[in-house]
Structures are given as structure tokens and as C-alpha cells.
Amino acid sequence: MFCLLSLQHYYQNKLKLAIIGQSQFGQEVYSSLRKQGHRVVGVFTVPDKDGKADPLAVVAEKDGTPVFKFPRWRVKGKPIPEVVEAYKAVGDRKAGFTVFWADDGLDTGPILLQRECAVEPNDTVDTLYNRFLFPEGIKAMVESVQLIADGKAPRVPQTEEGASYEGIQKKSNSKPAEAIHNWIRGHDKVPGAWTVIGGQSVTVYGSSMLGGSVPTGQPLEIDGASQPGLVTNNGLVLYGTDGKALLVRSLQFEDGKMIHASKYFSSGDSASVELTDDEKKMEEEIRNIWKGILSNVLVIEDTTDFFKSGAASMDVVRLVEEVKQKCEGVQLQNEDVYMASTFQDFIQMFVRKLRGEDQEEELVATKEVNNMTVKMPHQCFINGKFEDAENGKTYETINPTDGSVICKVSYASLGDVDRAVAAAKEAYDNGPWGRMNPRDRGSLLYKLADLMEEHQEELATIESIDSGAVYTLALKTHVGMSIQTFRYFAGWCDKIQGKTIPINQARPNRNLTFTRKEPLGVCAIVIPWNYPLMMLAWKSAACLAAGNTLVLKPAQVTPLTALKFAELSVKAGIPRGVVNILPGSGGMVGQRLSDHPDIRKLGFTGSTPIGKQIMKSCALSNLKKVSLELGGKSPLIIFSDCDMDKAVRMGMSSVYFNKGENCIAAGRLFVEESIHDEFISRVVEEIKKMKIGDPLDRSTDHGPQNHKAHLDKLLEYFKFL
Q: Which residues of this protein are catalytic (predicted)?
């Protein structure tokens, strides 16, 4: 009994900790504290060294614990504000609800039951309601009634202070960006947070913290703000007093009209879209939906206004759901109805969405390199859109030629993985991809291959600066073979079929036995850094041709061509959610994909130890199918009766092709002793002729190794010579 009481007391005294440390010692402390039941809410450690994370960071990221990497904590004895802010950020960020005993009208009665959930960086009251408050609230009310019925309901007293429904909709804009963001999302969707722009009250919706670079735009004076806002192609950028930025998507004016924030300075008279015959049929179907909802309106004309005709908020929900049910694959939101309230505007908005012309301009890193302007998306690609990682984290991707930073790339979190998988599952279960005519699916893949060919120089340039691949090889092999792969599998789309099988022993012989090949569903792909685009093509082209949807994690050090591919997939018309790209940590993102119950198959190319871990995780989670391409140290054996010129030529290409970063590279050469010295001498002569340098120089034979950690590993081998 004493041990049991001690154990209860032990569990009641668990701590939430932030760990500051590094190396194996820090890793062991972290693991030991977690084993004892303490909750680690954040890890503060040193930055990556030569592309390699500190052991403490590795184990924390694998668990999904927030990791902050700073080279120092204080300067001249004073703490660095950025570090202090990050330290404070790992505190509680919770939402929840309380079930009270009835009192005299205020929520000050004794507490009966409470529930809580984590608040994600861009959650709103609306998203919390759908994800947590609604489903868990129902369960909690039933549980509360049962507790009362059983005579077990507690009565926990509380003070009256702060118990009020009164909220302040308007708040000073002279606050840090996160405070403004919290204020906006705390009132989204109802009642809405408002400010003053141009002398009139404007309600703002759809706030998210803006990480990375701020897009260009037109300045807009905001009443009480620390500096003017910025109307960009993605929305209205607001700045806090701390210089950080947030993005607002929608604005609603006093007359009830709602617009996308990017359209603030627009006249609203955009060119009309001319409808095709099929789109005109859809227009009439939607007109009938409007008639069914607006029963008091005899004729639905182009100028008919949904709200002026008597529609309320529930009618908005009905309109959105009926249109989505009638026209599969179109992503409509309630806000779309508010922004296009007349029938003509609604149809124009609907058709643009149907054609994929409503895409917001993604944030891209732009570089003038290789005699061209290269545009590189650098955010996570989830459900057809580029967006920052959920926690706003980024990392630097490095040009191995000179060690310069190409750009900052979103560092996907566990929440991003779950959202990407959910988008892929929704696209497969309810979207058009899996049910699409295979020939139409093949046409989209052919179009994607054509777009890759159209952008092949840009893709090869990105591959060169991100991976160090020699441009001429990147153009011919990395990109060229990727294009060929997609064209090959596009042709397979309408040729995937089963078999009929005779049954000799069946009596009477009236049975028909056949097989039917169907897509698996959501597939995960984890690719290496040696052939970034080609490995993507080899794995994803077959996956898509069969009708699957995918979540792909590129190598952390070479994410840029995968993200450019995502951009081209949108232009090709691939439906939302079919392709999702998550740059970031293999240990965290890859592990979550291996464990995720909604992933049906996982493909991985990489090391044998990681392959073993993936196979184990896939088996334990949901016995998902696995394809592994692991290791590789191919031997090349050269005998004395060889053609020496050919042996040297083949030996050189087997070792040095693509800088030796090749899964079938001849990592071991066995040369018969009698010709050993001659062979080595000839090889050394040929090596001296090789030009090592800038991969964008057309005369370069050998570019830089992919990343510094890999180079250091190669240099270590020389210690044994």
C-alpha cells in the first residue's frame, strides 16, 4: 500500500521542462527525464555542424519536441532577446472548455468538468470548434450528466473574476505581431476582429504568422499600426511593434461586402471568364441550387444577390455543400460566397476554381544565375498550396559550390505531416483523382512532363546549385530522365488491368474468376540527395499513374527541385491533395510517415540501418507495404587479360559518375596484382585531366560534393591510407 501511495504522489509531481544542452550527455539527460514521465516542452542546443545535428537535437526532433538552435545564449552577460522569446514560446498554449453547475446567470458556478487541447500557431476559434470543441463538447456533456446521475459529479469553486462573455473586438494595432495574430484568430469567424482603414471599420479574417521573406506589395495605412501594412498577391501583411509580420486573407466592409485582402486596391472589374459548354451545364445546375435555397425569388438572374435575397449563414453552408456535392473536386469555402454574392460573380469564382486559376502566388526565392532568372518555391506544399511550416520554422539550404545560403526553406513539423496525409487521403477518398478516367489521368501526366521539359533549364540550374550536380549532366540525366520517366508511366495509366483465371475443378463450370488492380491510396515517398529530381520521378510517376496520392519528403539538403516540381504539378492541373511535398528532418518527418496509420505504402531510398527502422515501423503501425532501396558498395573486378584502355575508362566512369554520388558506384575496385601498378598509374593520369569546379561551368567534369558532411566523410577515408 505504501508503494502504491508513493507512486500516486510520484505521478502528481511531474514537471514540464525546457532543456538547454548538447552532445551525448544532453541526449541521455533528455531521454532519462522522459522515461521518468517528465514532459520536455523545448530543447535549446547548438546549431548544426557541417550539416549534422547535435545528438540532443536528433532525439528531440524524432519525438516531435520543439528544438531551438542558437550559437550562444547571451552577449556581454546579457541574454539575447531572440533566445528569451523562444524560451518563453515553449510555455503552455492551451484551449479548452468548462462545464459549470448552474448559478444565477454568470459562468461562476462550481466547475463540474474541464477539457483542454493544444492550440496550433494558426488555429482560430472556428478551427478549434470543428476539431475539438464540437466533438469533445458532446462527449463532455453526456459524461457530465452521467456523473451527476451516478452521484460522482465534483463541485470545484471558482472566483467570479474574469467570468464574462464580453470580448474586445477592436484592439490597438501597436502590439507585437503574435499578439495581433492572436487577437484576430481569437475572433475568427464570429464576431470578427476589426480595425480602421481609410476612415471606415474593416473586419479582418484569416490571420497567419508570416515566416521567411515578405512579398512585395502596395503600402496601406492602418489606423494605430506601428507601420503601414502591405497589400500583396497573397493578402494584407500587417506588422507588429517587434517588426515581425502576419498575413490577413480576407476583409469585410461596413456594407457587408467581403473581399480577398489582395484585392483591396482593385476596381473589382476583372475580365470575365468565357464558359465552355460543360461549364455552362454546371452553371445551370448551380442556378437550380440557388433556386432551391432562395425559394422567394422567382428567377435567378446574373445580378441576383444571395444575401439581399434573404439568405442567412446556414444558407451559405447549404450552398457550399450542395455545390461541392454536385461538382466534385472543387474546393469551396463559406468565405467564397461572401466574396462573390451575386450569381454572376459566384459562377465566375466557381469556374476559376474549377480550372485552378484561383491559385495564390506562392512565395519564391528568386536568383539571377546561369544567365536566367530562377524562381524557387521554398515552403511546404500541402493540399495544392505553398505554405509555411505550422510552427513557422525554417532552415537554410546551402549551395555546395561556395557554401552560400540559397534560401530559407520551411522545416515541416509533425502537424504538417498529419495535414499533408489528411489532404492526400481526402483527395483519394473524395476527390476526382482515384475515380478519374485512366486516360485522362495519363493526359495530365503527359502535360506535367511537357511542363518539366519547358522548364528543364531552370530545373537543371536549381539541381546544380542545390546538389552540386554538373549542369550538363543535370540537364541530360537528372532532368532529362525524369521527363522520360513521367512520359513512360503516363502511357501506362490506361493499361493497368487484371486477368481472368480458369478454374478447372469447379462443378458446374459456371464460375468466373478474375483479378482487378486498384490503387492503394495514400503513399509516402522518402528520397535521397544524390539524384533529387530523378529519384522523385522514379518513385512518384508510377505511384500517380496507378491512381494513388502521395506525400513526398525530399532530402533535407536538396529540397528545391521537389518544390519546383510541386509548382509545375499545379500548372499541369493535378488536383489538390494528390501531390504533397514536406521538406525537413528525415528523422522526424520520415518517422511520422512510417508510423502514420493512413499511409498504405512507403518507398524509401537510403541507408540500410534507416531502412530497417522504417520496415519495423511500417510493420508495427498498420502493416503498410514497403519498398526499400538500401546501401550499395558495388565491386568492380579487373583481370590481367582486360582491355586496359576500356578498363580505365569504365573504372573511372564507375567511380566518378555524378561525383561518385551514385547508388551503383564502384565503391570497391579489385585489380589483379600483375597489372595493379599500371592500372593505378593510368587512372592517376586521367584524374589529373579532370576539371573540378563550378558545376554551372560547361567544361567542369566534377562539381562539389553534395554537402559538407558528405565531403568530410570522404576525407576521413584518407586517414587510413
A: 629
